[in-house]
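#struct-pred

JT: dropping the chains for the assembly here, can someone run the whole complex?
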Amino acid sequence: MNLLIRNARVIDPASGLDGQRNILLNNGRIAALAEANASFKADEEIDANGLWAFPGGIDLSAWLREPGLDHKATLRTETRAAAASGITTLCYQPEPGANFDSAAQVKLVDDLSQRKATARVLVVGNLTQGLKGEQLSNMGSLKKAGCVAVTNGWQPFKSLQTLRRAMEYAATHDLTVFVYPVEHALAAGGYMHEGEVSARLGFPAIPSAAETVAVAQTLALASHTGARVHFCRLSAKLSVKLIRQGKDSGLDITADVAAHQLFLTEMDVSDFNPLCHVMPPLRSSRDRDALREGLKDGTIDAICSDHQPHELDAKLAPFQQTEPGISSLETLLPLTLRLVDENVLSLPEALRKITSNPARIIGSEAGKIAVGAPADIVLFNPESLWEVDLNALYSAGKNTPFAGWNFNGAVQRTLLAGNTVFESPHPSPSPSRGEG
Amino acid sequence: MLNAHLSPGPLPSRMQLTADGKLKHFLTIEGLPPLLLEEILDRAEQFVTLPNKQQKKAPLLRGKTVMNLFFENSTRTRVTFEIAAQRLGADVINLDIRTSSASKGETLLDTVRNLEAMNADMFVVRHEHAGAAHFIARYCAPHISVLNAGDGRHSHPTQAMLDMFTIRQKKGSFQPLKVAIVGDVLHSRVARSQIHALTTLATGEVRVVAPKTLVPAGIEKMGVNVFHNMEEGVSDADVVIMLRLQRERMQTALLPSEREFFKLYGLTEKRMQLAKPDAIVMHPGPINRGVEIDSQVADGSQSVILEQVTNGIAVRMAVMSMIMGSQAGGAA
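RK: done, full complex below.
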């Protein structure tokens, strides 16, 4: 069974391709890529005139909750949200209550995904057992079971020695360590960025130093152990500078940022909005600008959603009593493309941050439109205007502060390994509009 | 349903006023217009009890039910709210929530819904978390008004207004004044509300005086000058407001000892001599003698600490009557 996508504007950041092409898909992979006038015969054709085609997004962090926390969300609901928003690969972020100590647990998620998922689900395994920060996890078996990286998430380590040994052991198995940089002694008891707004609202706060101290320590350990480290969710200006220096000195490191950190600041918490309660906290506009700068110059490799769907009650309380996190899967692509409108990144650069760069970080062969690559493709209608509507979100978590935001361009169709996993209910632009 | 629950609410400053600018809730001083603060002070004048004169009943709240919801303990604030409401003719119900529903696991929202069902007209709320009063105001039935009696370290607006009332009584106008707020600003909701009130009323200079560990980063943005030296901070001041220093602060590496704090920041007669000769000394209470303030100063002729307490009743009556006046069918 093969499928031809005709006349799309193909944008592939990995190869630098940007032009009208026909894409032939066969057996879940891209079989050929040719000039638009080339003639292929296919069992089925999609006329993609007026649409963009780019690789399906790869999200380095989604808290998928199932099994264990399925009152918040399930693999079915969240991969549906991914497909509907042009994300075809999700890295399952472990957390207390839903994490991966053994190959069997990884296999359980694989089996569940086989049956229910409309996106690829890749597991990030535990760095320490139960994420308790004491004993090393069975990284050798986790790697064999298909884990793409290991992490301790936001959970603290018993000591720096534990982190050091865990990094060494991960390096032994050629596993990338996803480090969430936070010095818990400095962050403990805090709920928002320590700055002008926390001073005004009287919130117990988390200083930027809680992150930068940990970044500096981890850089020193990366240098010492030679481990490959990926820094997750940078939020502070000085962190960007430290990572830049680390990269300049030749360390094998990468970094990501959550999309919302590029648009929201501490000011968005001024009205006690629990939807903006997130970890790391939304920081100052100077930090936000430095994060954008870091994306531009390549210090920050990837943009992720850090998707954290919650049930309604988790956010229905005074700010401090609410659970942190934003349901952000469905705004990952729109916010990333908004960086193009705001002249932060070019279109291929923006797409690279959610396709080929994260693919490189997790060693995935997806994230590109090239012959032989998995046929994970998004057909995107750049002309469609839409507004984020909580009731129209596919995710089980409706906790987003972006309700009411307007975006240009929407996903028309999403293909995962050649199969259509989402098709927009709105019609695609007519090829014969004759508008000239 | 979803949108009502999860869309961003109105800004707190706007939520407090009705469409025609009347006080609907009293949650924070921040964002309130100066004229409204002056109206509160003017109205409080009418409620001040003269010594040896029987309190005139002003039954503006007759038939109304005021519920004091105290999630955190308090004696003075709760009692003065209770007296204020009673003098206005309201029925007052005191609920000590710590010992009832909250300890049984009921959510704040459920507690509020249940009390609503008992025909409350006004909630007076004290809660350990910043934003709790806003939260209740946002989700309670539209006919109910919420009066913040202290939320976390955020706001304590009636305390600030009674302080403003006391300052105006003694000093007249705010414009020429230098006001020094001394001590644990970091943990003080009173200080934050005082700063908003003083800057809104165009006070000449507002200072905060404390070591760096007790001053939150970024407080200058609220329009204050920060001093780390007590002598400089009180120098030439018209009003010196001392904040309560809680003893547990010594255990959290914020301060070395009570003795050193008193030595460097305690208000003594000698330090008061650096202020203007007619300067007044204030304290929101309860005071720690010998920790932040010397007894001779606390009980001295420049101290207005007990007058603050008395004025608290009049100011709370003023705020309650204004809020009830904004309610449909209200009496005022």
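JT: nice. Chain A touches chain B at residues 194-205, 207, 270-273, 275, 312-313, 315-321, 390-391, 398-401, 403-404 (CB under 8 Å). The radius of gyration of chain A is 21 Å.
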